[in-house]
């Protein structure tokens, strides 16, 4: 039993396949099978209505509007010369700027790690007074060691 009312034929002249799930081109409105639905596959004459690409500035990554008939390269070049918001100083911000003061250590940290006794900036490995040969007080001592010192009460 054949159902003549179902499906539509592909609008491509060479194909004319009966398709039960036809697809309509959103640019020209013709009906096509799955093999000819793309604009290039059926040589759509209305491609310019839908196939619009907006160039992007390579420096600031902002879309640059191009009017019909203008050359995109020229418009992007004019944007780069006049309207571009690119700032090279913002691009190269260094995150790890706090260099360790321990001689021979080249590590850098994102945040300052200050020694409580000498006030020097050190990396995580050398942050304790005993690890960086602290010269801040008479002798480097950890907090646990300070607890055992005799305290004088007056």
- The Cα radius of gyration reads 36 Å
Note the beta-strand portion. Answer: 5-15%
In round numbers, the mean pLDDT is 81
Q: Biggest sheet, in brief? A: 2 strands, antiparallel
- Number of helices, where a helix is a run of at least 4 consecutive DSSP H or I residues: 4
Helix content: 10-25%
Count of DSSP strands: 6
Q: What distinguishing features does this structure have?
A:
two-stranded antiparallel sheet; about 10% strand; about 150 residues; alpha+beta; two-stranded antiparallel ribbon
Report on the architecture of this protein.
The chain is an alpha+beta fold and 154 residues long. The chain is 16% helix and 8% strand. It contains 4 helices and 6 strands; from the N terminus they run E-E-E-E-H-H-H-E-E-H. The strands form 3 sheets. The protein has a two-stranded antiparallel sheet with strand order 1-2. Strand 1 (8-9) and strand 2 form a beta hairpin. The longest helix is centred in the middle third of the chain and has 11 residues, at 72-82. It is elongated and about 100 Å long. The relative contact order is 0.07.
């Amino acid at each position: 039993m054949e159902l003549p009312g179902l499906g539509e034929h592909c609008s491509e002249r060479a194909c004319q396949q009966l398709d039960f799930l036809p697809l309509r081109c959103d640019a020209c409105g013709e009906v096509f099978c799955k093999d000819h639905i793309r604009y290039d596959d059926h040589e759509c004459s209305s491609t310019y209505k839908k196939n619009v690409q907006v160039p992007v500035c390579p420096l600031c990554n902002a879309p640059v509007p191009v009017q019909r008939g203008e050359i995109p390269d020229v418009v992007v070049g004019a944007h780069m010369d006049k309207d571009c918001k690119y700032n090279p100083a913002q691009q190269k911000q260094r995150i790890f700027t706090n260099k360790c003061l321990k001689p021979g250590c080249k590590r850098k940290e994102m945040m300052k790690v200050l020694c409580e006794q000498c006030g020097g900036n050190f990396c995580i490995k050398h942050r304790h007074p005993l690890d960086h040969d602290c010269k801040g007080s008479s002798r480097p001592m950890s907090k646990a060691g300070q607890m055992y010192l005799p305290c004088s009460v007056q």
